Every structure is written in C-alpha cells, then in structure tokens.
## 1
Amino acid sequence: MKKLVIFDLDGTLLNTYEDIAAATNHALAMYGYPTHSTPVIKSFVGNGINKLFERALPEGHKTEEMVLKIRAAFIPYYNEHGADFTMPFEGIVELLYTLQRLGLKLAVASNKYEQATKALIDTYFPEIEWCAVLGQRDGVPTKPDPTIVNEILATADITDRSEVLYVGDSGVDMQTAINAGLDAVGVTWGCRSRQELESFSPLAVVDTCEEILNIIVK
C-alpha cells in the first residue's frame, strides 16, 4: 500500500472553474478586454495563473506587463470570491477521510498561487491533516517541474518513491509525476480529456474516487 498521496487541486480535489472564470473575466474587463465562457477559461487552466492570463489575452496583448496587470486585478477579487461556487468533486471528501483513517500521509501540489491554495484547502478540508500544501510561489518553477513534489517528499520523509501516488487531472500533472519518478493516476472529472491523460501512460485513468481508493489499498 502507498504511504503518501499527493493531489493536484484545481480539477482534482475541487471544481474551481466558475470562480476562476469570474475572477479572470473581472480582471480582463477592467482593461477593456473580451471575456470568455467558463468552458473556455477551463481550457486555459493548468500551468499557473500567469499562463492562464497569457492564454486569455487577445493576440498582440500577451505581454509580460499586461499579464502582471491582469494578475494584480485577479488576485484581490479571487481572494474574496474564490469560494463563491467552488465545491469538492463527488466522493473526494469521503476519499480523503478514508485515506486519513488508513494512516496515509496526504499532500497538495498545485500551480495555483499558494495563498489561494492554502485558503481553499482550509475552507473545504479543515479536518484533514495535510503533511504539506504547496502552491505556486515566486522563484519556484511550476509543474511539470518536480520541485514542489520533491519538497513534499522531503517534508513527508519519504525516500522510496514507489510508496507515493500522484493524482491529477491534466497532462501537466501526469508529466509532473513522470519528472518526479512517481506513479500517477489521472482523473477524468477535471479539465482535460481521457485521451490526454492516457497519452502519458499513467498507472490508471479513473472515473470515480472509489477507483483511486482501490488502487491505493491493493
């Protein structure tokens, strides 16, 4: 049985897309840019918010200066409204409680900026004893670079990477696991297709939390 499970946040633990879309559109509208539907914003998610804004800006306006302006407008709005519509995906709360009762260590590795990552985890999973919750920080490369995963392994005092499972919803997550030398499970309820997940040859691609539990405890 695995000893540590590392979860992605957006699209894996929490359905955050409506709130991300609202905050992104708020920031875009402040500067007179066209806004996007939630499904379109969802397709931009996965590589951190700076890349989200770059993708959301029109051609010819995807400059670093403009990305930082959109970020500066996005963050205070999202800090206030990031839990307006966000909810855990079906079965996630029960899965986390079960894994905790079984004595597994649990962690979060997200490309969402760390302040929001920690706030959402505290809001939706207050009774889970996480060994680490890491998000995007200045000066630290985002996933699929394995830096934050390696930080989690050090915090959890895990040296045998076969004892770790990484769970995520995107190709970025699957590549993160590959780069960190970890087994990965892809979930189909997030922002990317089964075909994208399967293209990275993870341990499994699953449709339910029960399947994750069965993989971990077998």
## 2
Amino acid sequence: MLPDECSVYYPEELSLFGTILDEVMQALPANLRTAYNRTALAMNILACASTGERDPEELRRAALMDSKVRAAA
C-alpha cells in the first residue's frame, strides 16, 4: 500500500488485527518484543489486510514476512 492510500476497517476487523498482533508478539522471544518490532509487525498486518486478506493464519504469516524485526540493543 502506498503512503498516500488509505483503508477503512470495521471495528471487528481492527479487533482481529489487534488480536493477531498480540499473538505474534507473544510468540517472539523476549528480546524481540520491542515497540519498534510491534510497529513493524502491525504495518505488515495492515499491508496484507489492505489487499482484502482476512484469514488469521495468512495475516500471522504476513506479520513476520519481509519483516524488519530486530533484537533489542
């Protein structure tokens, strides 16, 4: 999704995305559970969701794909 594009989501969808983000964060090792990584994962989930994807397993996979997740310094 380009920066100047926008999407509108229903509350149920936002709840789903938040739940998936929380699950993915909890699955990470403690040293990777940073605010930076949470933002990177959320952006991946939203990028995938912007294509119309709503399958939780696909969104979980997308969260970790092409990710800029890094260990805390």
